[in-house]
């Protein structure tokens, strides 16, 4: 049996008949569903939506529940059209919205996805409705490429795409109109709005900003970048540590968006010549509280705005969620459970040092303990901490902040970063007077932290008296559990990774494949890899007698410190990441 190809809308009966014929749905279930639906009269829901709501299990292996996505893919194969999962970040909304009107697209429940001079790609849920195809082809004088998408996606993105395109166009017209009337910048626009001379036209910019936030949250972005250019500005997201180009926006609209966000962050929207910092607290569509840290930078074509997204669930986790193994957790807890001394976390920018420190402090912050921090800036406000932000414009730097904290009767002090000798000396004084001090250093590995302190001018005997241990870390992308596949390991590549250490390669490792869950990247989320170096008596002796980093590093290895690459190799063997990913983020041995 085959679906009729004449012009018509799909019916529940013919879809059920095909599913039964293909051995996917039992005849009895199809009959039970079809009879009451037929008796109910006209049904506005698409047949695939009705069938998906039954949550039937497929009769074909692996007998998974038939979702709307699965059923739509089956239909696409059945009618010989490509299936498309719509990725809104890959759609040029302003371009596709010109293909047809919102009313026309809604009438036929179709959605333009891509448009070139010779071809327009249109998503539909009705493969045998062809009236619109002939009309659009004649008007545009180009070929029409039809693809099948789920009803759910078309119903969601159809109004969103057209509303966004309308907002972009409206914001552009608003800007051009203001230029003609003598209004040359967005600040004057805001003043007019406050004075009541502007109607709801500025709502266009509000809608664009809301769209930007929603899609950043959905894409699991850690940073949003708004980059002005001469004519077209760029929007980019950092997802799992990698930058992705998202959208292009006319330069005047970028300026308006930047000013809107600066206003939300209580920043000076008139000042564009100097960098500024701000903060926005908002919620995701599902109600989760999110905080965005804003930073502007003057560039050749205007202000570049970066928004770092912080979620309380992400920045404060237990050690297992951070990627610590059982042995690493024990060693780390032994170091930070000491009553006084200095504990250092090292790694480059973006390696997760702040998350590790916050999670560690959260475990230490009991009601009987006073935890104070001095940060630049405060990444996330935590109720259990007393947090102070560095403000260099009024002379409040790290060393001054530590001096202030010392008078606040603290038990545990967290210093955002040790950058100079004065800050290092204040941290040492705090440790010597009975406080536990946690801080960060920008070094490539844990042993390098000691030589960095020596380079700053800290005497070796003070390092031996105060430093309890050092943790070095990196963040690696983890494989998507929904689509990763096993492959044979290349033994030579494995030995190159772990060299000069000896490690038997696993029988299989995992590789990225790509699916809808991970947006075809093969990776989903990130995890930490760590090297932990407690300061033993032999290491302290090494500090006193020599400043040779290689000798110090070798001694740390002899005492059981596993380097970053070995930590990464363990995650490769466990099927959590790839060999290339570990090589990408870790330095070669001895560097």
Instruction: Give the CATH class of the domain at 314-473 and 528-563.
Output: Alpha Beta
Q: Biggest β-sheet, characterized?
A: 7 strands, mixed
What is the helix content? 40-55%
The termini sit apart by 67 Å
Sheet with the most strands: spatial strand order: 12-11-13-14-10-15-18
Strand elements, count = 18
Estimate what percentage of residues fall within beta strands: 15-25%
CATH superfamily of the domain at 314-473 and 528-563, called what? P-loop containing nucleotide triphosphate hydrolases
- Return the average pLDDT rounded to an integer: 86
CATH architecture of the domain at 314-473 and 528-563: 3-Layer(aba) Sandwich
Could you tell me the CATH topology label of the domain at 314-473 and 528-563.
Rossmann fold
Helix count equals 24
Low-confidence sequence ranges:
183-201
Q: What is the C-alpha radius of gyration, as a whole number of Å?
A: 29 Å
Helix vs. strand class: alpha/beta
Structure description:
The protein is α/β, with parallel strands linked by helices. Among the domains are: 12-79, no CATH class; 183-310, Beta-Lactamase (2-Layer Sandwich), CATH 3.30.450.90; 314-473 and 528-563, P-loop containing nucleotide triphosphate hydrolases (Rossmann fold, 3-Layer(aba) Sandwich). It contains 24 helices and 18 strands. The chain has a 7-stranded mixed sheet, sandwiched between helices. The protein has a 6-stranded antiparallel sheet with strand order 6-5-4-9-8-7. A hairpin with a 3-residue loop joins strand 1 and strand 2. The longest helix is centred in the first third of the chain and has 30 residues, at 151-180. The N and C termini lie far apart (67 Å). The relative contact order is 0.06. The model is unreliable at 183-201 (pLDDT under 50).
């Amino acid at each position: 049996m085959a679906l009729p190809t004449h012009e018509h809308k799909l019916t529940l009966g013919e879809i059920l008949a095909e599913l039964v014929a293909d051995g996917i749905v039992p005849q009895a279930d199809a009959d039970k569903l079809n009879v009451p639906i037929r008796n109910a009269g006209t049904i506005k829901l698409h047949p695939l939506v009705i069938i998906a709501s039954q949550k039937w299990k497929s009769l074909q292996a692996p007998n998974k529940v038939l979702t709307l996505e699965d059923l739509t893919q089956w239909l696409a194969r059945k009618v010989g059209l490509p299936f498309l999962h719509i990725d809104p970040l890959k759609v040029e909304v302003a371009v596709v919205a010109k293909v047809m009107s919102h009313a026309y697209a809604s009438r036929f429940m179709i959605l333009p996805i891509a448009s070139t001079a010779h071809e327009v790609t249109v998503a539909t849920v009705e493969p045998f409705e062809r009236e619109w195809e002939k009309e659009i082809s004649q008007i545009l004088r180009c070929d029409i490429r039809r693809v099948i998408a789920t009803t759910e996606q078309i119903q969601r993105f159809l109004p969103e795409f057209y509303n966004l395109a309308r907002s972009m166009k409206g914001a552009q017209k608003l800007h051009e109109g203001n230029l003609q009337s003598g209004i040359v910048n967005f600040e004057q626009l805001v003043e007019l709005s406050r004075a009541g001379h502007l109607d709801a036209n500025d709502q266009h910019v509000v809608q664009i900003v809301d769209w930007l936030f929603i899609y950043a949250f959905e894409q699991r972005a850690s940073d949003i970048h708004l980059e002005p250019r001469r004519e077209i500005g760029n929007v980019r997201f950092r997802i799992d540590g990698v930058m992705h180009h998202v959208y292009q926006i006319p330069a005047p609209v970028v300026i308006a968006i930047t000013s809107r966000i600066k206003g939300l962050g209580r920043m000076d929207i008139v000042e564009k010549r100097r960098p500024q910092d701000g903060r926005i607290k908002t919620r995701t569509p599902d109600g989760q509280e999110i905080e965005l840290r804003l930073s502007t930078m003057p560039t050749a074509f205007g202000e570049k705005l970066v928004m770092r997204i912080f979620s309380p669930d992400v920045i404060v986790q237990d050690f297992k969620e951070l990627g610590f193994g059982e042995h690493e957790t024990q060693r780390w807890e032994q170091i930070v459970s000491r009553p006084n001394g200095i504990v250092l976390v090292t790694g480059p920018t973006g390696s997760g040092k702040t998350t590790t420190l916050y999670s560690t402090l959260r475990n230490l912050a009991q009601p009987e303990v006073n935890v104070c921090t001095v940060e630049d800036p405060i990444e996330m406000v935590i109720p259990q901490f007393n947090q102070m932000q560095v403000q260099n414009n009024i002379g409040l730097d790290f060393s001054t902040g530590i001096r202030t904290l010392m008078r606040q009767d603290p038990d545990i002090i967290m210093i955002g970063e040790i950058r100079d000798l004065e800050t290092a000396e204040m941290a040492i004084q705090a440790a010597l007077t009975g406080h536990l001090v946690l801080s960060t250093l920008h070094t490539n590995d844990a042993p390098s932290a000691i030589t960095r302190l020596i380079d700053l001018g800290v005497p070796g005997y003070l390092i031996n008296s105060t430093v309890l241990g050092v943790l070095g870390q990196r963040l690696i992308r983890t494989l998507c559990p929904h689509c990763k596949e096993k492959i044979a390991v290349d033994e030579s590549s494995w030995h190159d990774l772990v060299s000069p250490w000896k490690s038997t390669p696993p029988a299989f490792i995992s590789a990225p494949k790509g699916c809808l869950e991970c947006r075809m990247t093969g990776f989903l989320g990130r995890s930490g890899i760590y090297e932990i170096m407690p300061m033993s008596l032999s290491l302290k002796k090494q500090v006193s007698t020599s400043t040779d980093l290689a000798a110090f590093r070798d001694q740390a290895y002899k005492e059981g410190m596993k380097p970053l690459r070995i930590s990464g190799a363990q995650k490769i063997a466990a099927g959590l990441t790839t060999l290339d990913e570990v090589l990408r983020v870790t330095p070669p041995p001895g560097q």
